[in-house]
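Form 12-C: Joint structure prediction
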Amino acid sequence: MPQTASTGAVELDLDPFSDETIHEREHFDTTVRETAPVVWLSRYGVWATGRHAEGEQVVTDWQSFTNTAGTGLLDTRKKENWRAPSPVLDADPPDHTKYRSVIASVLSPVMVRTLQEHFEERAAQMVDELVERREFDAAQDLAQAYPLAVVPEIVGMSPEGRENLLPYSELNFQAMGPRNERYRRAAERAQAAVDYAATAVLRENLDPDGIGMRIYAAADEGTVTEQEAALLVRTFVGAGVDTTMYSMGLTLHALMTNPDQWALLQSEPGRARNAYEEALRWATPGPLLGRTTATEVELGGVTLGAGQKVLVCVNAANHDPRRWEDPDRFDITRRANGHLTFGKGVHACVGQMLARAEVTAVLSAFVRRVKSVELVGEPVKLDSNWLRGWEHLPVRVTPH
Amino acid sequence: MFRLRSADGNVIELEPEHGESVMDTAVRAGVDGIVGECGGSASCGTCHVFVPEEHLARLDPPEFAEEQTLGYTAVPRTDASRLACQVPAADVDGAVLDLPERQY
Ligand code: FES
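Section 2 - Result
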């Protein structure tokens, strides 16, 4: 039996994980956001907010809205989970602080800058090859292929077995939702990948020059244990591939379907970084973030009981007219910072600077070589409990 | 009101709106020397500023996230370093804050 809401709360019988919602978020997001600041989703016995102010409060106030019960739909303290808790995702300060700072130090803006040249070179190579072909799948051949190539490279993982990265990462995100058919299919597909992920991140399998080994350096200094270092590398690889690839595809699609913005970027390619920022707001790859109330806490005028799940509907908040002017308009000149796609505060995405560097490199290479791009087939949406993106984007390009 | 002084000595005067952070005010005014890429999450380190001692003493000390982000700014931190997104503009009223040479 799902828990019931406290009296006075607005209940909605909407399903965030139905096929309809997953393939077209708008109805769900708008209803949650416009019904009340906070609503009770009776089907799963969880709270949800689609407003920017409340969403920001939930992700920022980690003392009241804890990560220790997982960042998905289910309370991982109650249910048996498919993987061991991540020391950085499924934890709060003070434990979290130590682990996060290990990853933060290897992904700092300064570190990311040293990778910039490598990212640009790889982006140029990949885009050149695709432009030669004229017709390709911008989702598979570019948005997915790029992070799948460069993330293991910079971590220093062996090329062998890399095909397991995607099923591993997929399970990671499917498992954030309910134990439905999507989850079961992903779990089946990922059987081999779970073993792969456990061994590929071990010290002996990493290139000494990669950033994976820099995480192990923290183990050598005694900051974290050897086993924790392995979990941190695994967390980084599991969290940094899918999210980046889907956000890249969503950005490309946003530009293709907004020709005025594509034209603007053509004439001013320097806007690539901000175009990505706006795409992160306008079409987030991560429409939901889960937290759990640590104590009784007030949110949007409603008192939430202790130990209850709260879903932040990120896409809804990123389109909240209370926060954004003309929120449904994709505008690459907008100041888009402040969207909740990367979260905020102590739990804000630690890889966000890396994602920006990767996607900006690809976008800049693409817009400099491609004069026009058009869809030549039906795009196919990703079928995921927790992520949004494009599985296929068949396109034809005309070079400059 | 507070002022920002760029690494090459240019001073600009800024008028914050109610409740804004120093980063918010600077970005709204289009100040080049502050990027603020993470939107004030204390996680990008691109809003690094140096706060004069007398004002520094009056600020709440940095929280976890700010403390760790200050550890990897483009220009290394000093005792005067803060992240502008974590400093309420009202708390540095009248101050002249120095900007680092670069934020990336
Ligand atoms: S805006 Fe990113 S750390 Fe201040």
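Section 3 - Comments
Chain A touches chain B at residues 93, 97, 100-101, 104-105, 108-111, 113, 277, 335, 337-339, 342-346, 348-350, 352-353, 356 (CB under 8 Å). Chain A has one domain: 10-399.
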